[in-house]
Amino acid sequence: MAHGRPGLTGPLAAAALPLGFLAVFFLWPVAAIVRLGLGPGLGAVLTAPRTWEVVGFTLGQAAAATAVAVVTGLPVAFLLARTSLRGNGFVRAAVMVPFVLPTVVVGLAFRSLFGEGGPLAIVLANAFFNVAVVARTVAALWSHVDRRAEDAARSLGASRLRTFTSVTLPVLRPAISSAAAVVFLFCATSFGVVLLLGGGEYATLETEIYLRTVQLFDLTGAAALSLLQIASVVAVLVLGAFLRRRSTALRLRGRADTTRRPAGGEWAVVAAAYLVVLALLVPIASLVAKSFESGLDGYRALGGTGFRGSLQVTGWDAVLNSLRAATDATVLALVLGGISCIALVTLGRSRARPSLVEGIDTALMLPLGVSAVTVGFGYLITLHLLPGDLRTSPLLVPLAQALVVTPLVIRTLLPVLRSIDTRLRQAAATLGATPLRVWREVDLPLAARSLVAATAFAYAVALGEFGATSFLARPESATLPVVIGRLVARPGELNNQMAYACCTLLMLVTVAIVIVVDRLRVGTVGEF
How does it sit in the membrane (predicted)? Predict the structure, then answer.
């Protein structure tokens, strides 16, 4: 046959580029932290009462926020999966907005509602972020669950509640458990929210690592805490991967979605879903209102450096810094993510072992499992060993942001590329098209909508990235999230007004991006 299965050399060579980037800008810094954390100071950190207070609060607030996100996300999942109401498009976009909002924006929004914050504000803010994870992940499975078993239970006299608990819930449990594991991971590594709402009294491992590094210069203690965090994250990731495989297996056995208008008691669930959406809009509305509390003073102040020169850049300079860094990070992530997807798809169609393909895919997802603060800390203790000392380079922030958003690009593009009918590619090859032309003429047009979605989401996440950027951005090249964090930490009403104005600008850009992606009807949450 003239056009057989592709060989391994080309795709493996292509995969070498993103894997090399991963090795230098992720594995090496994390390994350096592990080595430093295993030093003589580990025992002192592990026996310190403060450490276990921080660990306890980290796990406690993550568990509470996960429970809130699951309870509030399930009615929304039902609305998206089982109904065909006209407002579903708005609901879909509304629940996605919190998921991609910058953490400092959410933190300041809840601060406008709760004053100085505290445990309740932290839990609600983290749950606010993650309702979309539960809603979209569970809805992806729920929309494929066969209704006939539910109808049979109802015909035998079971109430709607008993039908749900006895028939539907057991089928959904893997998806719920998988979503809960991911939400717990996000909440346990929450940074901007806890930093803004903790008030110096409440800290998680994430914020404690940052404070020990930036304020106390205790690199050994910070590394030991990073080691604890990595161990807990790996455990959650393993659990989440196991539950996700079970969820995928169940989803493939379901039949196509058949939505309909709610009936009877289902309207109560629909009402609960709309109440959740309304609750999600309250912090956003509060933030916007706060930014106009003193008229346009906060927006006018963006041309300056804050109260008594709190910043080394003006607010508008920070906007430009954010746009430049996010653009560079997105371009790099698209290149690395695109090459990764091509390599993985080609390997999947070749003679490669499935374990090899899965291993490369898992390796590329590793940055999702380690906090950006830990990675940023790792950069500070490693990258000076490279030629030119990248720690002083303006490229460092885009590199760190690209590491965060590249997995997002892969998870958005890869399922679409894998679903393309191979017969179309074979037909093009039979007509004499080269492999490159096949990718250009067949794969790229079919994946164009997902490519736009991946670009938009990557840009939104890079624009609002705060964890690693807070470590790495120099004062004269501070991005908007870093400027917001610095303004909030300094006294002066003008600084607060500027911070709320900056948050509103960031939020408006994020909302616009979510609307564009929703118009394309391309989901990302359920793919993680």
Answer: Multi-pass membrane protein
